[in-house]
Amino acid sequence: MREELLELIPEFDLIEDPELRENTLRAWELGMTEGGWTLDDLQEMPFTLLINPCPVDFVEHTRVVVLIAIEAARIFAEHYGDRAPVNMDFVVSGGILRDVGKLLEYERDKNGAFIQTREGKLLRHPFTGMELAARCGLPADVQHIIASHAGEGEKVTRTTESTLVHHADFISFHSIKNLAQTKTLVSRIDR
Fold first, then answer.
1. pTM more than 0.70
2. How far apart are alpha carbons 19 and 24 in whole angstroms?
3. Would you write out the chain's pLDDT as a tens digit for each of its 191 residues?
4. DSSP-assigned beta bridge partners for residue 108
5. Which domains does the chain have, with CATH numbers?
């Protein structure tokens, strides 16, 4: 499964630190195993349950978020240099793992639709993702990115890496949400 996962999400290989790369892969594999998911499932799984139907799958969204965050980090490095240092490995690892908890938050119902698990309603993916990362030995900086990437992060001071991943995530989310809206706005006055 590992080779296929690396083909599906080649951004794992952008993590330069071998231990961080290995632990990031382990967290993803652990989430898949505990959630009972296959690689094919990931390409069918919507990245969010808040957009229905969702035109983007879990893997596509993960890759786009990572790539947006990387580009933002490169711009920081180019323009700010050492004044705003960014750990690119943390950006990539955190970007890949920020939604890994959804592998425990989602399940399929009897009709094959993706739904939120009871546990997912109690502990959303920022919590379960952080827990998976902790069990796999990922550093607190990466756990922080996972824990603070969504609304739960509004209560903490985000690191630069977390801020970049958070905004990359919401650039993708809001853009796809806007594309998915098919309502035709019509106004009529009856007299």
1. yes
2. 8
3. 899 999 999 999 999 999 999 999 999 999 999 999 999 999 999 999 998 888 999 999 999 999 999 999 999 999 999 999 999 999 999 999 999 999 999 999 999 999 999 999 999 999 999 999 999 999 999 999 999 999 888 889 999 999 999 999 999 999 988 876 665 555 555 55
4. 114
5. 2-180 (1.10.3210)
